[in-house]
What we know:
The structure holds 2 protein chains of 2 kinds. Chain A is α+β, with helices and mostly antiparallel strands. Chain A has helices at 5-18, 64-72, 114-124, 129-142, 158-171, 188-205, 216-222, 240-245, 250-255, 343-346; strands at residues 26-35, 38-48, 53-57, 79-84, 87-88, 99-102, 176-180, 208-213, 225-230, 233-238, 260-266, 271-274, 277-280, 292-298, 304-307, 313-320, 324-331, 335-342, 354-358, 365-368. In chain A, the strands form 4 sheets. A 6-stranded mixed beta sheet of chain A has the order 6-7-8-3-9-10, with helices on both faces. Chain B is mostly helical. Chain B starts with a helix and ends in a 25-residue tail after the last helix.
Amino acid sequence: MTTNTASNAAAADGLRQTARTGGTSVSLQDLSRSFGTTRALDGLSLEIAPGELVALLGPSGCGKTTALRIVAGFESADTGSVLVDGKDISSVSAARRDMGMVFQSYSLFPNMNALDNVAFGLRMRKQGSAQRRKRAGELLDMVGLVQQAQQFPHQLSGGQQQRVALARALAIEPRVLLLDEPLSALDAKVRLQLREQIRTLQQRLGTTTMFVTHDQEEALSMADRVGVMRQGKLEQIAAPDVLYDDPATAFVAEFVGVMNRIHAELQPDGMVTALGSTVPVKGDSACDLGAGAVDMLVRPEGLAMAVIENGNGIVTTRTFLGSVTGVAVLLSGEVTVQIDKPSTEAAALAPGTSVSVTLPAEPVLVAPRQ
Amino acid sequence: MATVARQGGLGGKVPPQDRAGPGGSPPGSKQPRRRSFPVWRWAILLIAGVFFLIPLYAGLRFAGLKAFGEVFTYPGFGSAVGLSLRLAVITTILTLVLMVPTTVYVHLRLPQIRRTMEGITILPIVIPPIVLIIGVLKVAPWFLLGTPYLLALVYVILAMPFAYRSLDAGLRAFDLKTMVEASNSLGAGWPTTLWRVVLPNIRTAMLSATVLTVALVLGEFTMASLALYETFPVWIVQFEQNAGPVTTAASLLALFVTWILLMLIVTVGSRSARKRGGAQVALFTVAAPQESSQTTGEPE
């Protein structure tokens, strides 16, 4: 892939010149959709700015794929509408929506070689044979697969197939690019490479993109904004760093990244006490909770730890993760927390070591006691 | 006491059993392995072969080589073969035109009724042909009576079980839903998607549906005879009395021609399928080779 970078860049720039100027905005307005008794979408609203890559992240069955399929035109919403550049497209068929889609399962047409697959959308747009071959060639060059142009899907690896599928989706200069977990069938290394490739291409072409995934790392690393979904609703949508540092709800906090739950006591004045110190509660997470037993949510890097005799915790295990080491500490009350330490410092923390764990000074999230 | 003795007895028996097992022979001993399975395989093949070939051989002996030459000049042969071929063509076209869109539709939109479809399509095999044809003759509209189209329509029903099963297996062998959606999202409407994406990928299944339909039409006797059509099988039976050797030669010819046709289609189908990485063509494809590798989407 790296050897082709220069030509890829040239091909992409050429494409950008021909691409629509201005980009396309997408607006999902109050979408609801039920399958039988299951409510897949429950009033989902989402605005995507021109050229933006928005990831929808959530557990299985949260409705993210349904949302994408409604935008693509493969499903229809019970209520609500989808606006593209301000126009309601609910009554437009999938074939006329001008949206490029990459699917989770391999979707190349088995009866066509890579080049013909990429050229298919252009053929549907009545482009001449020479013109569409040339353009399909450029697209294949862009994803670094010009050598494989004549190969059939079964001769390509999974990663190659998804790259051809991406080229095929981009060939039609789609107004919106829809990615439905395109990487989840691939192995870890290929997934990482393709992740970067998709993001680079998307930024160069400036195509408005909606990306569905259940992999938080994927969402955080690729998207301009990540929308976390739960039970058919958008729980929070924000830039990846905001989502991680300042999660709006306990669900988001625990779904994105690692989160420790520590037994705590909510005070009537809105402060919360745990591990011998009292800190303010962040946002309105304590709103629905009465004073009393709650759980406090703290990131592994948010907790401080020092080796001390008769501390409030005992190191149980150490997990080497490269530059950092995850240290599991058993607190009183049979609660285990994970604390990340630079691996050089973690050497002193053998299992059985007594430590003292202290809270950060900044406000923390609280959630009902589990 | 007794228990102990029995245990001892068992213990005594174990070593010989052990020795007979695959790991029992000492390393380095080069005893030839008993190859009982291939022998049985050959025996079964031989028995089956004899069972099928004896009638053929008897037929050949009875007809004699001369009769094969006379077949073509015999009265009624040309028109009977002509009618049968016409019926084969009409039936095949009708079957494909009816069954391909139906099966595709069931797979895409109504996968829950696939079992029901299987049940329904088996009915023509279960219902005796006599019952079927008498019923059809009673209710057939006047303008169809006596035309080959009437018989062709009945044959479409007869061919349905075979056609449905072939097409069903063909459609299960690739991810139809994703292919259709990919095609739609690239701007292809329904007719184009069917023509450029679906049909090329079930070509083999369509071929086997065609082969089975043709074979069925060329061999069907009961209905044609009851409805007073002189198709090729009917002609053979009619002339059997006064021109035995000739009709025997004719039926042998029909057998060989059909067989060669089937082999041809299977060979050609397999070759083109292999080029695209598809599975070997079988007349009855039951398993769906790629189904297990498909990633199942979330049940959203």
